[in-house]
Amino acid sequence: MSTQVIMPQLGESVVEGTVSKWLKAEGQPISEFEPLLEINTDKVDTEIPAPASGILLRVFIAEGQTVQAGTILGVIGEAGEPVPEAPPASTAAHPTSPRPAVAEMPSPAPEPVREPAPAAASARPDLGFISPVVAKIAAEHRIDLSLVKGSGAGGRITKKDVLAYVGSIPAAVPAWEQPASGELFRPSEEVFGGPPKAGPAPGDVIPHNAVRRQIAEHMIRSRRTSPHVTTVMEADLSRVVAHRQAHKEIFARDGVDLTYSAYFVIASVAALKAVPWVNASWTDEGVVLHRQVHVGMAVSLGDEGLIVPVIKNADQLSLLAVAAAIKDLANRARSRKLKPDDVQGGTFTITNHGVSGSLFATPIINQPQAAILGVGKMQKRVVVIESPGDDAFAIRPMAYLTLTFDHRMLDGAVADRFLSVVVERLETWS
Predict the structure, then answer these.
(1) Pick from 185, 193, 214: nearest CA to 330
(2) pTM score > 0.85 for this model?
(3) Which of 374, 273, 263, 373 is nearest to 318 (CA)?
(4) Residues with Cβ < 8 Å from 123, sequence gap 6 or more?
(5) Are 349 and 282 in contact (CB under 8 A)?
(6) What is the pLDDT of residues 326-364, one digit of tens each?
(7) Which of 28, 164, 329, 405 could bond 24 through an S-S bridge, CB–CB 3.0 to 4.6 Å?
(8) Tens digit of each residue's pLDDT (9 = 90 or more) over 27-74
(9) Is 204 in the active site?
């Protein structure tokens, strides 16, 4: 008797997903609980295990298509067993690209951008079957798969196995935010240079992956949805730098890296509490002022785009707890272990665009939020220190902060008040 492969609901508020990759082609055998396909929800890839053992008889939903939870994706059964030509009408797919659902799926192939040809899924006589996702992770991290112990059927190496192995390798350099110049979560080797990566040749057409398509759709929708306005202020981070220098060793005793990111989160929380109109979302019925403060942090995925994991209930967290949350999100973003719920429910977003030397920028709002804070590069500059009758020049660690806001919900005075609170909190840190 055949078994249907059903699109699961991967989070409380996740009602649909995109089939990013089938790890088996029609006609190939599959064991129960062996990874069968990857589903992308809000730029988080999740491996879906097979619900039963047998042969993948039919694939109903092609790679790149977005469907609702509960949709029949395919059928597993015995060889020669009859299966319907298409799923019931109530579970029809909603394509995100012109490609229609097809009855016959080609074997998975590597993406042409960064992976060399050996990364393709194939039967390896020494290691057994290596799925495309495992081959891709191994190529990115230069992992010798013969050193990885497989936990899958027959000793097969799964995505979980290779990610666990990657996580066990000590980093040669600090993996995340570098003091004064690092991006919130971006690996330092991408910022300051590392081993050269193979890139596309001039003239090549690089197919859009699911993450890039979602980014494009979200950015275009955001610009079409809300009128964007950006206000800019400058912050003297002398007190923040001094506080971090005095406390980073204390935090390290608890296994927490005290990065500058934590200070920007705490300052933003203070401003969101003082100016609640910024912690809001637009609806046709009215502006929703959120009770919870969930701060999203933009994460660079390099050539693959970006993602925004969320620090939930940030207003209830201490500086230590915020720093710990950032470290946790950073580690799981790096190892691709974020869950769909980790990127859901944000009420405000912070992005650090200063990693490459950018002083200030105009980020695009993460819909349906009211605003997004941009953090520029911190650098020492000569500033005027004002005092009655005795102004003076001084060198201070300065940073430009930008607030891009939805002019339907916020006016300039409200936005400036919010950004002023952020600056004041940073400049008076104690």
Answers:
(1) 185
(2) no
(3) 263
(4) 129
(5) no
(6) 888 877 877 778 888 888 899 999 998 877 788 989 999
(7) 28
(8) 899 998 888 998 887 667 788 888 889 889 889 998 888 888 888 899
(9) no
| Tokens found for residue 156 | 């097969």
| Residue at token pair 């092609």 | 62
Structure tokens at 241: 């730098």
Distance of CA 105 to the CA centre of its chain: 29
Residues in Cβ contact with 119 at an 8 Å cutoff, skipping those fewer than 6 apart: 110, 132, 135, 136, 138, 139
The tokens of 149 are what? 């112990």
Q: How many CA atoms lie within 13 A of 293 on its CB side?
A: 21
Q: Which of 269, 244, 271, 270 is nearest to 256 (CA)?
A: 244
Active site residue 390: no
| Residue 142: pLDDT band with limits 50, 70, 90 | low
